[in-house]
Every structure is written in structure tokens, then in C-alpha cells.
């Protein structure tokens, strides 16, 4: 089962410096645990700060198969020589094809590109740009403090998404737990992606 850990440094206690330090330690632990992808998703950080954090994470996972993707910032990914970029399928965003054109003359390392999709139609559109993987969500309803924040699309819809995306692998995202991850694989997903699941230590 492929696993993608999505970062959220605010889940760690302390001030900004403590949170970033904790995230770097967590990234090293993920690499030890064999996590396939780490998606650095710290949208509020300025580019320079994000780049510094990314370099520290790359150092922490150096020598392991774990790959670091920068969320929605191909410029930062290029600057730090990250393994790739994670994109959204929202209108007006760069496509995987455009990012590859941007990266190819500037980099000598393979650029891994994943993309988030929430509908079958967005998967069909994304597929034309040949992403390396698709994160499809939300599968299960999202609950925080026992309140439903976002309803889930369910396993049947996940199965349809996997059929639409094939042969591109799907990571199931949204409400994923240790208890339901096997159901996602049975529905056709190649793996799972999560924030809180992987931040539990």
C-alpha cells in the first residue's frame, strides 16, 4: 500500500520554530517508517521560509526512498531540488504538463507530479496531462471534535474514480483511518493519503 503523509505543522505544540523543528523530526520518522511521499503543505509560509523548511526535510529523509513534494509551489520545488510538486485541479492552476515544461530545462532530477481531484470529470481532465498520481477526496466524512466538517463521497465513488483514472494510481484521501484503509485498497486505490492519521505518534 502506497502512503502519502500530508504535513500540518500546526498540529505540533509550541511556537513557529518549535513546530517546524517537530515537523522535521516527524519527516525523519516517516522516512524510517517507509512512507512513500511527504507532501509539504504549509500554505501560509513565505516562499523563502518554505524553501528553508523543505531543505531541512530533504536532509532529514536523505538516503531513504521517501520523496518530498512541495504543495502548489513548483518554484520552491525547483529551488530546493525537491522530488516533485503536488497540484490542485482548480481552474486557473498550473497543469502537470505546464509544470513539466517549466521544470525540464531547469532540473536534472525526475519531477514527480501529483494532483488533487474531487470529481470524476476533474480526473478525466487531469488524466490528459499525465500526472504520476491522483489524490481523490473526500472518501469518508471529515470529523473534527465530533462534528462533520465535510461529507464523504464513499467507496463506490472511489471505485469509479479508480476506473476513470487507470492506469494512473489513486491515493484515497479524506477521513482515512487504520480501520478503513483496507477498504480503500479493495475499492481500487493504490494507496492512502492523510494528514492527521500520519501525525499520530
TrEMBL record:
The GO molecular function terms of this record are: thiamine-phosphate diphosphorylase activity
Any single biological process term in GO: thiamine biosynthetic process
A Gene Ontology cellular-component term: cytoplasm
Q: Under which name does UniProt file this protein?
A: Thiamine-phosphate pyrophosphorylase
Q: Which residues form the Thiamine phosphate synthase/TenI domain?
A: 19-196
The record's listing under PANTHER family reads:
THIAMINE-PHOSPHATE PYROPHOSPHORYLASE, THIAMINE-PHOSPHATE SYNTHASE
Q: In which pathway does it act?
A: Cofactor biosynthesis; thiamine diphosphate biosynthesis
What Pfam families has UniProt attached to this entry? TMP-TENI
Q: Which UniProt keywords apply?
A: Thiamine biosynthesis
